[in-house]
Amino acid sequence: MTARIIDGKIIAAELRARVADEVARVQREHQLTPGLAVVLVGSDPASEVYVRSKHKQTQAAGMASFEHKLPADVAESDLLALIAKLNRDPAVHGILVQLPLPKSLNTETIINAIDPAKDVDGLHPNNAGRLAGGSAALSPCTPLGCIILTKSVHASLEGMNAIVIGRSNLVGRPLVQLLLNENATVTIAHSRSRELAQLCARADLVYAAVGKPEMVRGAWIKPGATVIDVGINRLQEADGKTRLVGDVAFQEALNVAGAITPVPGGVGQMTVACLLVNTLRAACAIRGLPAPA
Ligand code: NDP
Known about the structure:
By secondary structure, this protein is of the alpha/beta class. The chain contains ten helices and eleven strands.
């Protein structure tokens, strides 16, 4: 049996269309135009691609998009002053500082300076804490995307055995909290975990967020399991071209899993779409409107 491919492109496009409809509604009914400010420090090529894509998709959804590009050697005080200005700006409902930041800047200090109400990346300790406490908050976009993709296969995750491989603040940890909120039973694995293959073999839901090309083998996967591959790894081919692969050995897993996300075309597509969802949610919350559907 070949696994069903979970098409992140289609699911993200549907989500963006729903956000655009809601944006049009809040504009019509409440004269509210959600606004997202993206701050890019330095000129990392991958970050520039992400920021361009965020800008285009924000505008396509009918929201206001504000881009702030700062040199790699910007003083921390200048970056903090920009964040303080964006925190006060009534046209800005979401603030995203593109990571990673240059080493000269303290990421924690910068993230902590963002108004939690505008923290659309969900990384401020207030939002991470509220998520851990099980109460509604702005959740990090990639884990949110993973849950939406899983729910395209399973209407309810209640009682399912899930394994999250990776425990970063950006992906693994918040994903664990979101899965707990869905009443899944969650195993968290990391670089010190033992017998990863056996842990994996028990899981109905496998989330790989490691950053190691094709580490999760087909033989680790329980027949029929749903596999969500967060990894984005760039491999150099013999002909000099680069190829993107995930953290899961896709061809092997395809013959065992019930459903699987491809790389590219899976989780990556969802991240920006969920950023738009968070910006809309933040704008409604700041204006005192009910959370959008
Ligand atoms: P990090 O490097 O921050 O975290 C990696 C995690 O994997 C750590 O918790 C680490 O464990 C664990 N790990 C490393 N080696 C092993 C191993 N051999 N066995 C088990 N666990 C291991 O990465 P991120 O969470 O930021 O990203 C993970 C992947 O997801 C990357 O490929 C990244 O490019 C991709 N990504 C994709 C996004 C998207 O939109 N699709 C968005 C963000 C990330 P320990 O804690 O013990 O060190």
